[in-house]
């Protein structure tokens, strides 16, 4: 790259573009570039991924290929954190919530919470880096406490957050969360919700009020474990505006609002009357099952008759063939001499009938009387 650009009257400048994962972007142009020199890029965030693109521009304002480099800066101390949030308080306890510092400038290994009354010395509470909530207990009743927090990496602690103050007595809670309609019908509504993010004490119950057309039609006080309620006997197709409040020993707090409605009632459609069949229509239109059954029975009768006729014709044909004189001298017999020794008897090629007896006819030479007998055929 450098040789190609140098052939056009030499370098004019280097263009560098730096892009960080947390949105810190830097563009740099380096003038009077030597063939070899070091360039320092400052004010980068610790423990942050960066991509750096670099290209050369010659005196004819022609830019060469762009090269991209990637790198991770080393760790540093965490930045100053945002103050913690008091999510609940009681006579001897305060519960805090906080967000991790961003950018962290390193891997967080610990959180440190400081708390104190008035001008007294600070006390410290260490918290695992995977947690975002902590209850500070064994506090004195009805006292104003101060709180602050900081984070730590392997390099050390960052700066403490700004200080917040709260009193160790229960207060009114914040609005309940996720207030919604889970089921509805023409005459009922099921409402559900979650606990307030800011509790300010032990939640003792909830209060629901719903109105239609500006009038409070529904009101219900519920016990602490409840997270849903069903209103019944409502008007169909009605719009309701509902409010929900949570309560502690200090009273009910801020409300969550919800607009909901019941399903409209389906229109009444008169049932379609089916006229009764008359006797004449029954005669003219017999049941389909009866017609089909009659057709099948008729087909079976015709098939049976046809089979019987075919069998009869076949048997008649065989009888005629047996009585018909044959033109072959071997099959013409005027005299049949039967002997016990059957060695000279040749069985016909025709297959034997299933009947173990064969009927033979012959003509006697003396009286020319046709006789018949049954001779057993050894199987």
Automatic annotation (TrEMBL):
<feature type="transmembrane region" description="Helical">
    <location>
        <begin position="288"/>
        <end position="313"/>
    </location>
</feature>
<dbReference type="InterPro" id="IPR013783">
    <property type="entry name" value="Ig-like_fold"/>
</dbReference>
<keyword id="KW-0812">Transmembrane</keyword>
<dbReference type="GO" id="GO:0016020">
    <property type="term" value="C:membrane"/>
</dbReference>
<feature type="domain" description="Fibronectin type-III">
    <location>
        <begin position="175"/>
        <end position="266"/>
    </location>
</feature>
<dbReference type="InterPro" id="IPR050713">
    <property type="entry name" value="RTP_Phos/Ushers"/>
</dbReference>
<protein>
    <submittedName>
        <fullName>Receptor-type tyrosine-protein phosphatase S-like</fullName>
    </submittedName>
</protein>
<keyword id="KW-0472">Membrane</keyword>
<feature type="compositionally biased region" description="Basic and acidic residues">
    <location>
        <begin position="329"/>
        <end position="345"/>
    </location>
</feature>
<dbReference type="InterPro" id="IPR003961">
    <property type="entry name" value="FN3_dom"/>
</dbReference>
<dbReference type="Pfam" id="PF00041">
    <property type="entry name" value="fn3"/>
</dbReference>
<feature type="region of interest" description="Disordered">
    <location>
        <begin position="319"/>
        <end position="356"/>
    </location>
</feature>
<feature type="domain" description="Fibronectin type-III">
    <location>
        <begin position="80"/>
        <end position="171"/>
    </location>
</feature>
<keyword id="KW-1133">Transmembrane helix</keyword>
<dbReference type="InterPro" id="IPR036116">
    <property type="entry name" value="FN3_sf"/>
</dbReference>
